[in-house]
Amino acid sequence: MSLSKEFREFALTGSVLDLAVGVVIGAAFGKIVDSLVKDILMPPIGLLTGGVDFANAFLVLKGAPAATLAEAQAKGAVTLNYGLFINALVTFVIVAFAIFLMIRKINAWRRRAEVPVAVTTRGCPECLSDIPLGARRCRYCAAAVTG
């Protein structure tokens, strides 16, 4: 089998396409969560913490002091951007919790699907037909069935 044919076969299998769709949806979900953190959650948290804007929370390690992170970076200052790290941490926690909830639901579906079915029949030793557990004779071949 040629390399191109083998790669085409691999790339067009269902699992690879499912993975590609998952990556695209995950990227879109990540952008939504990032916007949720930056635009919805962090402003009220900033108000509760005395008006702190976490996007501009930084410490200048080397260089001229600046009022905003963009200004410090424009001046070439070396900064420790702990506010951006806090935003990323909150984003991670939200994404991890959403994935946890999704995996939890999938596992519940799997457990429900794996409920064992009660055995109600057995095989006839003569004709191998399925007969009820309580039967003493096979309904198909009339053979006596014990135990």
How is the topology of this model organized?
Blueprint: H1 3-11, H2 14-48, E1 59-62, H3 69-74, E2 78-80, H4 82-113, E3 121-123, E4 130-132
Antiparallel strand pairs: 1-2, 3-4
Helix pairs in contact: 2-4
Summarize the structure.
The protein is mainly alpha-helical. The chain contains four helices and four strands; from the N terminus they run H-H-E-H-E-H-E-E. The strands form two sheets. It has a two-stranded antiparallel sheet.
User: What would CATH call the architecture of the largest domain?
Assistant: Orthogonal Bundle
CATH topology of the largest domain: Non-ribosomal Peptide Synthetase Peptidyl Carrier Protein, Chain A
Sequence stretches where pLDDT stays below 50 over 5 or more residues: none
- The CATH homologous superfamily of the largest domain is named Large-conductance mechanosensitive channel, MscL, domain 1
Structural class by helix and strand composition: mainly alpha
How confident is the prediction overall: mean pLDDT?
Answer: 87
H and E order: HHEHEHEE
Top-tier CATH class of the largest domain: Mainly Alpha
Which geometry do the CA atoms define? Answer: elongated
Strand order of the largest sheet: 1-2
Determine the number of helices (DSSP H or I, runs of at least 4 residues).
4
Largest sheet: 2 strands, antiparallel
Terminal-residue CA separation: 55 Å
